[in-house]
Design goal:
The structure holds two protein chains of two kinds. Chain A is mainly β. Chain A has no helices and twelve strands. The chains are: A mainly beta, B mainly beta. The interface between A and B is medium-sized, with 24 and 29 residues.
């Protein structure tokens, strides 16, 4: 079945460090790919998305590129801030069906000053 | 334009009671999705509804769980005879139409069964 695998956390970084959170997927069709962020006690917010191969999603200094050949959608940020501390979820959505999201387990990021 | 509103934010139920979780989608949105987040897990799809219709309930447990989205009023996720394993955060998301790749999430209802 369709699934998303993302790197296990937690991840702890110092402010201004480089961030990479790996995400790979398995899908029967051609999915759209997403990164969501969940701040403590809050719901999920869409961070960025890409709907086809080689697209790059970007927002708030984060970016991820849809790599069909490696079935990956790794999240990167060049310089993290304390305010980026949250749980990050990679997800896919298959078009044409019920368009439900399939999520990874999440990666908790803590950024220390 | 208010976002997706879920209530209550926190709900405590004793084993065997019923839990009702409400979700008001964003204005103009007629598609609602429910997800469950167990501790230390990602979100799992439960059910997808359009006004007065269940489109996909493939993620719903076969017993005790039901969902509706009436013509008027919020979507309701109902859990009968709750058990400890139902303790989780339940999130609702809405979108304006089918084929929209962006769903907007509510803040969730945290259900605790004691």
């Amino acid at each position: 079945g369709d699934s998303v695998t993302q790197m296990e956390g937690p991840v702890t970084l110092s402010e201004e460090a480089f961030l990479t959170i790996n995400c790979t997927y398995t899908a029967t069709g051609y999915p759209s790919l997403f990164w969501y962020v969940q701040y403590p006690g809050e719901g999920l917010q869409l961070l960025l998305k890409a709907t086809k191969a080689d697209d790059k999603g970007s927002n708030k200094g984060f970016e991820a590129t849809y790599r069909k050949e490696t079935t990956s959608f790794h999240l990167e940020k060049g310089s993290v801030q304390v305010s980026d501390s949250a749980v990050y979820f990679c997800a896919l959505m298959l078009q044409g069906g019920s368009e439900k999201l399939v999520f990874g387990k999440g990666t908790k990021l803590t950024v220390n000053p | 334009n208010a976002g997706v509103m879920q209530n209550p934010r926190h709900l405590v139920r004793r084993r065997g009671q019923e839990a009702r979780l409400r979700c008001s989608p964003m204005k103009g949105h007629s598609h609602v999705y429910w997800y469950r987040q167990l501790p230390e897990e990602g979100l799992k799809f439960m059910v997808y509804l359009q006004k007065e219709n269940i489109i996909d309930e493939s993620g719903m447990p076969k017993e005790r769980f039901s969902a509706e989205f009436p013509k008027e009023g919020p979507s309701i996720l109902r859990i009968q005879q709750v058990v400890r394993g139902d303790s989780a955060a339940y999130f609702c998301a809405s979108s304006p139409r089918r084929g929209n790749t962006e769903a907007f999430f509510g803040q969730g209802t945290r259900l605790t069964v004691v």
